[in-house]
TrEMBL record:
<comment type="similarity">
    <text>Belongs to the amiloride-sensitive sodium channel (TC 1.A.6) family.</text>
</comment>
<keyword id="KW-0812">Transmembrane</keyword>
<dbReference type="GO" id="GO:0015280">
    <property type="term" value="F:ligand-gated sodium channel activity"/>
</dbReference>
<dbReference type="GO" id="GO:0005886">
    <property type="term" value="C:plasma membrane"/>
</dbReference>
<dbReference type="Pfam" id="PF00858">
    <property type="entry name" value="ASC"/>
</dbReference>
<feature type="transmembrane region" description="Helical">
    <location>
        <begin position="408"/>
        <end position="437"/>
    </location>
</feature>
<keyword id="KW-0472">Membrane</keyword>
<protein>
    <submittedName>
        <fullName>Sodium channel protein Nach-like</fullName>
    </submittedName>
</protein>
<keyword id="KW-0915">Sodium</keyword>
<keyword id="KW-0813">Transport</keyword>
<keyword id="KW-0894">Sodium channel</keyword>
<keyword id="KW-0739">Sodium transport</keyword>
<keyword id="KW-0406">Ion transport</keyword>
<keyword id="KW-1133">Transmembrane helix</keyword>
<keyword id="KW-0407">Ion channel</keyword>
<dbReference type="InterPro" id="IPR001873">
    <property type="entry name" value="ENaC"/>
</dbReference>
<feature type="transmembrane region" description="Helical">
    <location>
        <begin position="33"/>
        <end position="54"/>
    </location>
</feature>
């Protein structure tokens, strides 16, 4: 214990930390108390400021800066474009479908009443509340007998095909067949036609364009069939190519007989390597390869919510709704399951674990339209057509998210704090280690060596001999080897 106290005194006497030597070696008691109080206060202040800086570092405030406002148009892929006819079902096609079915007039009449309810809605499940479950079971039995087991097979019979809907297409000022760039997809609005959507089963990559400005990008002439002109037109959904086209808030409505010009302002939100090195709890976002979700190869918050919703449907209804064009390993819901779909269609998003994305593309869409003016060269009835031109109008912007505080900033802040309050540095830590640990080891080693060098106590045995007086001989002197 005395050795430890001696080391502490040596530390206080020789340390570079200001004020410690006066706590012990001041001659006056009041001076020692004063300097002790000063050291305690400076330690408390430095600890408090250290905690403030540490909390600031852990909370990790971030800043978003504009890296460039003139990035190449090839930086961000062209948005996905999904076109849907307002009319989920067409009366003429319903009649043709009923003619194909085998059943009694009463059975076919029930099927006709159900399908007719699809005519004036944008989402099929909206009509489910108007149909009792008994009729749904009866309709399903009729459809099963005619090999129409699930909803998509029925929609193919009563909706407009993509070849019928899209009559003329152009990509980057070059004419192209619409069926080469559009593919059929099923969403809540029925059967739709999607451009540049990359589903989970596809190995192709999203298309890009190097061109900007009017009449570049995608141009499509659309001819939607309709039951009544009051409910005629198309809905266009703009989305990220990797996202399933489910966002209704990104939907634009196009009326018959209009020319529509849609310019897209694209931007990319990225993160620095410093942000990526942080744990997820600190950066509060994830990269597309850090979380696996069912039905999709890459993560996005949109796909996560859709996958979550699909899982709810499968758990409650034991099938995947027809408007989710994925989950090919799971059964597709039949007409009989429409009521179950409607009951679970309003699943709250906060029930799903879908954190935000760190890096993603944003498409801001601005549309303008005008009426088609008839000309002498008009061959078809232009009033029944819709024209849309989707293009990039400016160069892309790239936004970069970076941390305000780094580990270098943290250490330099700590150094400034303790230098300000205590006048110490990293050398002071080495001094404490030396006096409390290193010097104790040296003292112990010195003590052991001193023990070895101390003289040992030898026992000397003295023997006495009796010498007889013999003058004629030399005396025998005892000796030892």
């Amino acid at each position: 214990m005395s050795k430890v106290l001696k080391n502490i005194k040596d530390l206080f006497k020789n340390t570079s930390i200001e004020g410690l030597k006066f706590c012990i070696f001041s001659k006056n008691l009041y001076e020692r108390l004063f300097w002790t109080l000063v050291v305690i206060c400076t330690l408390a202040c430095s600890g408090y400021v250290t905690a403030l800086f540490w909390n600031r570092y852990v909370s990790n405030p971030k800043r978003i800066t504009l890296k460039t406002g003139f990035a190449s148009p090839l930086t961000v892929p062209f948005p996905g474009v999904t076109i849907c006819n307002f009319n989920v079902a067409l009366v003429s096609k319903i009649n043709n479908f009923l003619n194909k079915l085998d059943g009694t007039p009463e059975e076919l009449n029930i099927v006709n009443e159900t399908l007719s309810k699809w005519v004036a809605v944008e989402v099929i499940t909206q009509t489910t509340s108007q149909i009792n479950s008994t009729n749904l079971e009866l309709i399903q039995n009729i459809l099963d007998k005619n090999d129409y087991n699930e909803m998509r097979s029925i929609l193919r019979q009563v909706t407009q095909t993509c070849d019928e809907l899209l009559i003329k297409c152009s990509w980057n000022k070059k004419p192209i067949k619409c069926n080469k760039i559009f593919e059929e997809i099923y969403i809540g609005s029925g059967r739709c036609c999607s451009f540049n959507y990359v589903p989970e089963t596809s190995n192709r990559k999203p298309v890009h364009t190097s061109k900007i400005g009017l009449f570049t990008g995608l141009k499509v002439w659309i001819k939607p069939e309709y039951n009544t002109r009051d409910f005629a037109g198309v809905g266009v959904i703009f989305h990220d190519p990797k996202d399933f086209p489910y966002k209704t808030e990104a939907r634009k409505t196009l009326s018959l007989g209009t020319l529509n010009y849609v310019h897209v302002e694209a931007s990319r939100k990225g993160c620095s390597s410093t942000v990526k090195s942080l744990p997820i709890s600190q950066r509060q976002c994830i990269y597309e390869d850090e979380k696996k979700i069912d039905f999709f190869r890459k993560y996005s918050i949109t796909n996560c919510f859709i996958a979550c919703k699909a899982e709810v449907f499968f758990k409650e209804c034991h099938c995947i709704p027809h408007f989710f064009g994925f989950g090919h390993d799971k059964p597709v819901c039949t007409v009989e399951k429409l009521s179950c779909i409607e009951e679970n269609n309003n699943v709250l998003k906060h029930n799903c674990d879908c954190p935000a994305e760190c890096e993603f593309d944003v498409y801001k869409v601005v549309a303008s339209s005008t009426k088609i003016l008839p000309t002498n060269n008009t061959i078809e009835n232009m009033g029944d057509l819709v024209f849309i031109n989707i293009f990039f109008n400016i160069h892309h912007r790239i936004w970069m998210t970076d941390t305000i505080n780094t580990s270098i900033y943290l250490w330099s802040s700590f150094g400034g704090i303790y230098s300000l309050f205590l006048g110490c540095s990293f050398i002071s830590i080495i001094e404490v280690f030396y006096y409390m640990v290193g010097k104790s080891i040296d003292l112990n080693m010195m003590t052991d060596q001193q023990k070895k060098l101390m003289p040992t106590r030898n026992k000397i045995q003295i023997q006495t001999f009796k010498i007889e007086k013999q003058p004629s001989k030399y005396p025998d002197i005892p000796f030892t080897n």
